[in-house]
Design goal:
alpha+beta, 8 strands, about 210 residues, Phosphatase 2c, domain 1
């Protein structure tokens, strides 16, 4: 018999590494979304940093980072998390979908593709938003399984006291491509002078889709 899983969730954003008490008023381009209980047919926010039992449909965590240097990055990341919130709204997820890893993966990729379409559509119709973009990474945990889907260079890590921190995602970035080819080590990607070059992102009009 599988034991019940208890989790504790904490969410925090530091305005793209430039923490300031005024960040929320001065254009923080980060956005995040989380759903504690995807089996609910009514909104359930839960309490942060409190032990919570996991439901049969699991929980979802999402981070979107508006692209620095582009117009309206905070708008793009907000569109991304709003799209996720719509597709994972109460009543949208059923146990049949939640318990199948491949179905979860396909659903998450569909949601990311839809966010990409919506950001491109907004950018096309609002000149002030032209060129905006965002990264996104989604983590859906059901029981003892984790399904990840992402676009860009926002990362997911796993930590345990014995093994330390382990990366679970690979960036869509120039330096990650160098690491994949063995040109540089993974550790060198963190402070590489070209570490800001993202090869895939939501809203990138040079790409047909970010799925």
């Amino acid at each position: 018999m599988k034991s019940n899983i208890i989790f504790r969730m904490v969410a925090y954003t530091d305005a793209a590494g430039k923490f300031s008490i005024d960040a929320p008023r001065n254009g923080n381009e980060d956005n995040f979304f989380f759903a504690y209980d995807l089996s609910k047919d009514a909104p359930f926010k839960g309490e942060p940093d409190v032990d919570t039992p996991m439901s049969e449909c699991g929980l979802l965590m999402v981070v979107a980072d508006g692209m620095g240097g582009m117009n309206a990055g905070e708008v793009a990341s907000q569109i991304a998390v709003d799209t996720v919130a719509e597709f994972f709204a109460p009543g949208k997820i059923n146990p049949e979908l939640a318990k199948d890893h491949q179905k979860r993966k396909n659903y998450m990729e569909h949601v990311i593709s839809e966010a990409d379409v919506r950001i491109k559509k907004d950018s096309k119709h609002d000149i002030e938003h032209k060129g905006m973009g965002s990264t996104i990474i989604m983590a859906w945990i059901v029981g003892d399984e984790l399904t990840l889907s992402w676009c860009g260079d926002s990362r997911a890590y796993r930590y345990n006291p014995e093994g330390g921190i382990e990366p679970l995602s690979k960036d869509h970035s120039y330096v990650q491509e160098l690491a994949n080819k063995g040109v540089i080590k993974y550790e060198d990607t963190f402070d590489h002078p070209q570490g800001n070059i993202v090869t895939r992102s939501l809203g990138d009009v040079s790409q047909k889709s970010c799925s």
